[in-house]
Amino acid sequence: MDSLHIELSQNLKQKPEPSALGFGQYFSDHMFMMEYSLEKGWHDPKIMPYGPIALDPSAMVFHYGQEVFEGMKAYRTAIGELVLFRPDMNLKRLNESCERLSIPQVEPSTLLQGITELIKIDASWIPSGEENALYIRPFIIATEPCLGVRASHTYKLMVILSPVGSYYPEGIHPVSIYVEQRYVRAFRGGTGAAKTASNYAASIKAQEDAKQSGYSQVLWLDGVESKYVEEVGSMNVFFKVNGEVITPALSGSILAGVTRDSVIALLKSWGIPVSERKVAMEELVEAHKQGLLEEAFGTGTAAVISPIGSMKWGELELSIGGGKTGKLSKKLYDTITGIQRGQLDDSLGWRYRIE
Ligand SMILES: *Cc1c(COP(=O)(O)O)cnc(C)c1O
């Protein structure tokens, strides 16, 4: 692999107010880029000023969507360290997504070096403020100018950085969700287990419809029988039923979330029973009837833990936890964010120190 080339921006941008960041609206001064060709493999890694890129209108990504992406965050801890959270998991998943989309895999150490150098250069973009972080978005696109349906012979890998605010400006609070019966996000043999744009393209209509009806997220059911729970919005989903925590097993149509994995590991370490299996909507309705559906929450890098306060399924409206954030949801949120921000002991070795 060629050595990393760095070109610094001569024109630094003004930074946004840390109190008004929102999510994914601002981008730092630099970006990482690397090219792939059949002859050279992945080559020419560089860090350069953030800005538009030129692509041929016939670039394959525009026509057939051959693309994968990742999402992770960098934090500044109380003692000033720069850290990532379990980046090895994201790099491994990126390559699993590549495999599914017929995109050539990336040497994890090369990409991690690119990401860490980029973050060091743009470290002043890590926003101050307890709940803020620098979101990291690596992605790969098919760039070959060709309208044939096949794997591209050239690709571009890029990493961009976005300072983001708390997902919950007024503190963590439960959301109402709509159980989707008409559309599906993924199905057996599809790309549900890959982090790829087309899964999202297929989900936007359902998400917009749910928003129109006053729900903040869609709960996806399986694409074969529309019977079993899969994910909520762009998050994995968990239910606490009569003291036991259950989450859909990784069946091939569900994304293997890093936060999901972390939640399962923490629950096990606390001696709380947790099982990964099929979860039928009927089972949740039955548990709710008996007063045993104690908590429900989504998990993902952006929100960490997103409590579910109610679920609308056909004519049924299930209220969970009386509109309050459950005790376990809160404990998981506090523990994971505490580890990420260096306030809690990292006994599981999840913090990755950059500087
Ligand atoms: C990224 C993503 C998640 C969450 O994964 P994390 O690694 O926890 O951020 C869950 N579901 C989908 C569909 C995703 O794209």
UniProtKB/TrEMBL annotation:
User: Which cofactors does this protein require?
Assistant: pyridoxal 5'-phosphate
What would be an example GO MF term here? Answer: L-leucine-2-oxoglutarate transaminase activity
The biological pathway it contributes to is: Amino-acid biosynthesis; L-isoleucine biosynthesis; L-isoleucine from 2-oxobutanoate: step 4/4; Amino-acid biosynthesis; L-valine biosynthesis; L-valine from pyruvate: step 4/4; Amino-acid biosynthesis; L-leucine biosynthesis; L-leucine from 3-methyl-2-oxobutanoate: step 4/4
Q: Residues where N6-(pyridoxal phosphate)lysine occurs?
A: 195
Reactions catalysed, as given in the entry: L-isoleucine + 2-oxoglutarate = (S)-3-methyl-2-oxopentanoate + L-glutamate; L-valine + 2-oxoglutarate = 3-methyl-2-oxobutanoate + L-glutamate; L-leucine + 2-oxoglutarate = 4-methyl-2-oxopentanoate + L-glutamate
Q: Which InterPro entries match?
A: Aminotrans_IV, Aminotrans_IV_CS, Aminotransferase-like, B_amino_transII, BCAT-like_C, BCAT-like_N, BCAT_family
List, in alphabetical order, the GO biological process terms annotated in this UniProt record: isoleucine biosynthetic process; L-leucine biosynthetic process; L-valine biosynthetic process
Give the family from UniProt: Belongs to the class-IV pyridoxal-phosphate-dependent aminotransferase family.
The protein here is known as Branched-chain-amino-acid aminotransferase
Q: Which organism is it from?
A: Paenibacillus lentus
